[in-house]
Write a structure and sequence with these properties.
Elements lengths: L1 H4 L5 E2 L6 E2 L19 E2 L6 E2 L27 E4 L7 E4 L27 H106 L9 H5 L14 H8 L7 H12 L25 H16 L34 H39 L16 E4 L3 E6 L3 E6 L6 E9 L9 E5 L11 E8 L4 E9 L2 E8 L16
Parallel strand pairs: 12-14
Antiparallel strand pairs: 1-2, 3-4, 5-6, 7-8, 8-9, 9-10, 10-11, 11-12, 13-14
Length: about 525
């Protein structure tokens, strides 16, 4: 049994080289601790035993180092050589347990389990994967170099555009100042002409109203002066039932005195100046009844007298209009309504401006429009300058290789959500079957380790969770020939992890492939 357990394995290190003998389960790097010619000292120094006790299926060392090839020590380690693939260390408890743990099957040397040596096949697959990975790194690095060149050219172009915009802004600021002065200069005459127009209109309206009021007063005086002596007396006022102020159907002496103000009879001038304003809201012309709630409609075959009169007046006006105009166009004032016909109507509109006033208004309007257009152009230029300055101020990597991600967005669709990453701006999540978008964070900073700072992005201050913190997203960048979001998870509440592959993350590939102990 002992010769089996102490089998010294020959390990070829090179074609035609010497063999290295070591106990089963011992790695090549530790073989010098196991010399059959002298006692064995436990690797933790806890004891020294006779070499014959190594791999005797009894645990003598506390660290299990005396039983690397058996399952005697629960904390022992068995080394799988796995020639053609990667070496492997497994717990000694897995030795001869009937399960093939080493691809070279050396862990089941005495269990009766049938294990195939799959190391060569695994090594072949790994070498192919390493070759594909190396090729990916090489292609990605070539793309990265192109991104670096494009970033340098783009930055130079943006700086030139920024300078041109700044020059344009200075010219626009000067033009806006000139146009603002021109607008103010044009608005002065415009304002004065419009004020004069309104003053003339108001004066003409007031004059027409005063004349009509005087006519109505004279009409009322003539109607009230029943004896035709040129004076209106107290008794004549009492004879007019429309002047009943208390609604009892008759004008009492007190009511007449209150309207007259003085028992002395008044002549036409006094009536017009002093009495008319008091009684005009109560007085109705003789023969005029109380106005009905709605005017009766005239018969279809008859023309209302009022319309006949209006038609006659219109015909007379047409006859009088010979098309000639005076040196200055007169403001036409519509006749004021009779006091009892007045309602809650809007005042008549101001008539159109004369040609000279309209020309001043048009000139001022052109000045305003030119100023508005220049101010709009200045605002757009300033917005473009701010956007370029912001973009040029971003840290897009050591050589600007990440600048192509700016103003781009990438999406990943899952069974429930659509995740959207807009690098250097924000991350969002939207339900796939309808619902509001949730902000998972806005751009914060590069957050990778000190030796690889540009491998991780941090987005912070997103929409707050219910009774929790604001959402935040960490974006891990890895090398790839395409740019895409490949995965999104939520490792902890309100903390999201997103993976982005991009050629910008590809570093220089190794000049020679690494060699393992295969």
């Amino acid at each position: 049994m002992l010769p089996l357990l102490l089998l010294l394995l020959p390990v070829p290190v090179a074609p035609g080289s010497v063999e290295v003998l070591r106990p089963r389960g011992v790695s090549l790097s530790n073989h010098h601790f196991y010399e059959a010619s002298k006692p064995f000292t436990c690797l933790d120094g806890s004891a020294t035993i006779d070499f014959a006790w190594v791999n005797d299926d009894y645990c003598d060392c506390r660290d299990g180092s005396d039983e690397p090839g058996t399952a005697a020590c629960p904390n022992g380690r068995f080394h799988c050589t796995n020639a053609g693939y990667r070496p492997q260390n497994i717990p000694s408890a897995h030795v001869n347990d009937g399960v093939c743990d080493c691809c070279d099957a050396t862990d089941e040397y005495n269990s009766g389990a049938v294990c195939d040596n799959t190391c060569k096949e695994l090594g072949r697959r790994e070498r192919e994967a390493l070759q594909r990975r190396t090729e990916l790194l090489r292609e990605g690095f070539i793309l990265r170099q192109q991104l670096v060149q494009e970033a340098a050219a783009g930055r130079q172009e943006k700086q030139g555009r920024l300078g041109a915009l700044q020059d344009a802004r200075r010219g626009l600021e000067q033009r806006v100042g000139e146009l603002r002065a021109a607008k103010e200069a044009a608005e002065g005459p415009e304002r004065a002409a419009k004020d004069e127009h309104r003053r003339r209109w108001e004066a003409a309206t007031a004059e027409a109203t005063a004349a009509q009021e005087a006519a109505w007063a004279d009409e009322a005086f003539a109607a009230l002066d029943t004896d035709g002596d040129g004076r209106v007396t107290l008794e004549e006022l009492r004879a007019c039932p429309h002047l009943d102020t208390d609604g009892d159907g008759a004008v009492s002496e007190d009511e007449a005195k209150a309207l007259l103000g003085d028992p002395t009879p008044v002549d036409a001038a006094t009536f017009r100046d002093r009495l008319w304003d008091t009684i005009k809201h109560h007085y109705k012309p003789q023969g005029q009844a109380e106005p009905p709630s709605s005017p009766p409609e005239p018969p279809l075959d008859e023309t209302p007298p009022e319309e006949e009169e209006e038609e006659e007046v219109e015909e007379e006006e047409e006859d009088d209009d010979d098309g000639s105009e005076g040196p200055e166009e007169e403001l036409k004032v519509p006749p004021p309504q009779h006091p009892e016909e007045k309602g809650a109507e809007e005042p008549p509109p101001v008539p159109p401006f004369d040609a000279a006033t309209q020309a001043l208004i048009d000139a001022a309007q052109r000045a305003r429009e030119e100023l508005e257009e220049a101010e709009r152009a200045l605002k757009e230029t300033e917005e473009s300058i701010r956007a370029l300055e912001q973009e040029l101020g971003f840290d897009f990597g050591p050589q600007g290789e990440f600048s192509y991600l700016y103003n781009q967005c990438y999406e990943l669709s899952t069974s429930e959500y659509i995740y959207r990453l807009c690098p250097f701006k924000r991350v969002s999540q939207k339900p796939k079957h309808g619902g509001a978008e949730t902000n998972l964070g806005t751009w914060g900073s590069w957050a990778g380790p000190e030796h690889d700072r540009f491998s991780t992005m941090k987005y912070e201050h997103g929409t707050g969770c219910w009774q929790g913190p604001n959402r935040a997203t960490t974006v891990k960048l890895s090398c790839g020939t395409e740019t895409a979001v490949t995965a999104t998870t939520e490792p902890s509440r309100c903390e999201y992890l997103m993976e982005l592959v991009t050629p910008a993350a590809c570093r220089s590939p190794p000049l020679h492939e690494d060699h393992d102990e295969l």
